[in-house]
Each structure stands twice: as C-alpha cells, then as structure tokens.
Amino acid sequence: MKATVLEEEDQFIKVLFEDISPDVANALRRTIMLDVPSLAIENVTIYDNTSALFDEIVAHRLGLLPLPTDLQMLVFREDCACDDEGCPNCTVHYTVSKEGECTVYSGDLNAEDTSWAVADDKVPLLRLKKGQRIILEAEAILGTGKQHVKWQPASGIGYTYYPDITVNDDCNGCRACVDICPRDVLGMKGAKAVVKDLEACSLCRSCMEECGRDAITVTGDPSRIIFSFDTDGSLPPREVLTEALDILHYKYDALAESL
Predict the structure, then answer these.
(1) Is 245 contained in some domain?
(2) pLDDT of 6 strictly over 90
(3) Which pTM value belongs to this model?
(4) Which of 30, 166, 194, 256 could covalently link to 189 via disulfide, CB atoms 3.0 to 4.6 Å apart?
C-alpha cells in the first residue's frame, strides 16, 4: 500500500491510498473513530457553582473540550503503575476559579503545566452574573471513542474512490457537461471537453446525465482511495493517521497469530 498526502493543514488531512481495498479503508476509518486515544476531562470536582447551570451540565461541557494530547508521555489510567490513584503519567489536572459578571471560556481552565492548555481557548462554557462564581478542579485522562465520543480525536472521516473520467470523440463541444459540474472539474480545449481538476470530482456523474451523446464516462477506482478527515485539535492529523495505522497493523498481526 502506498500513501501520498494530497493536502494537509493544522486540523485537516487528505491522503491518496493506492493498492488498497475498500474494506481496509473502512477499517482505518473505524479505527480512527474508535481506537485512537486522546485526552479528555473525566472527573470534575465542583467546590462552588452559583451560576444558572447545574453542576452536571458544567461537567459535561468540560468533558467535550479538545485537549492537547501527548501519546508518548501519557498512558491509560487503568494501565498505570499508580493503581488508579492518578499520577503525572496518566492524569492531567485543571482548575477554574472565576467570578462574575463575565463569560467563562475554555481558556479560563488553568492547566498544571502550560503544555496542556486547551486546544481552543474561545469555547464559551457558561455565563456568570454579578456576584456569581464557579470554582472547580478537573482531571483529564486518556480514553478512546469506543468509550465516549469526547475521546474521539477526529470527525468527518470519509473516503471516496479515485475518479476516472474519459471523454471520447463523440463530444461535440456543447459545454453542457462543463456548466453542470458543481466542482468545476471539466473545462474546454478547443471544441472538446477536457478534465482540468480530476481530484476535485465527487463522482456525482452529473456530467454523464447531462451529456446527450454518451461522450463522458465517470467511474471510480476501488484500488485507489482518497481518504480525509478533520481533527478537534487534540492531535495533529498526521499523528492520528499514523497511530490508527499502527493500531490496525497490530490488530491484523494479533488476528493472524490467533488463527
């Protein structure tokens, strides 16, 4: 299997996999969703909360905040030598102490070390009126999306076959296929339609339906798959992908050994 990064941003990646099958691509998608670990708040101790929100709602909102994750430094709490006591190897601590009138944002979470500061500090948590306050401590641990969605580091995970578009000699240059294409995949060269941005094709086949001369054929190659997803900022997208591939490789090896 060969992988080529087509596009990469801070929280997005698009990769072309070659010599792959759809079942492997789907296994990779599910692994990213369910098995790649990330950091999230699990335990919240609220000492004072006079806001309009119940303690449970505040704790729920805290749990969904994306937190920076270092998989080389942290281990799962159940696998840690501290026997579930919570130590620096498995647990990250945060505190909040605010008094109104103000809006409490995710950036108001004070991490025990600045390297663990929240990935997005502009997420509103609650509104405090004059005289109201919130004081709490929170513990963040590693988990996976299989346990709860708050530990899912990526979203919008999808894949599509690599497009293959053929324009034969029956094309009369009417431009109907060019005008109907929603992604500007086709263009004109002289009196014939040509492909100008193949990877932008979503395989909707609108051009085939619009063409009255059957001059265009659009198919997808199941051995070449474009894979893409966004992350919540807890992990870089490339690290999410490589971690998922390592997990999948380990599972395949374990299955082969058991057989």
Answers:
(1) no
(2) yes
(3) 0.87
(4) 194
Distance CA 226, CA 6 (A): 9
| Average model confidence (pLDDT) across the chain | 94
Going by C-alpha positions, the residue among 221, 218, 219, 214 that lies closest to residue 168 is 214
Residue among 38, 231, 24, 248 nearest 146 (CA):
38
Nearest C-alpha neighbor of 211 from the set 189, 186, 233, 230 = 186
Q: In the listed set 151, 171, 195, which residue is the last one of a domain according to the structure? A: 151
Number of domains present in the structure of the chain:
2
Sheet hosting strand 154-167, strand order edge to edge? 2-9, 12-18, 216-231, 154-167
77 and 58 in one domain? yes
Is pLDDT of 206 > 90? yes
Per-residue confidence (pLDDT) for residue 169, from 0 to 100? 87
Q: Any alpha helices (H) in the chain, and if so which ranges? A: 22-34, 55-63, 176-180, 206-210, 237-258
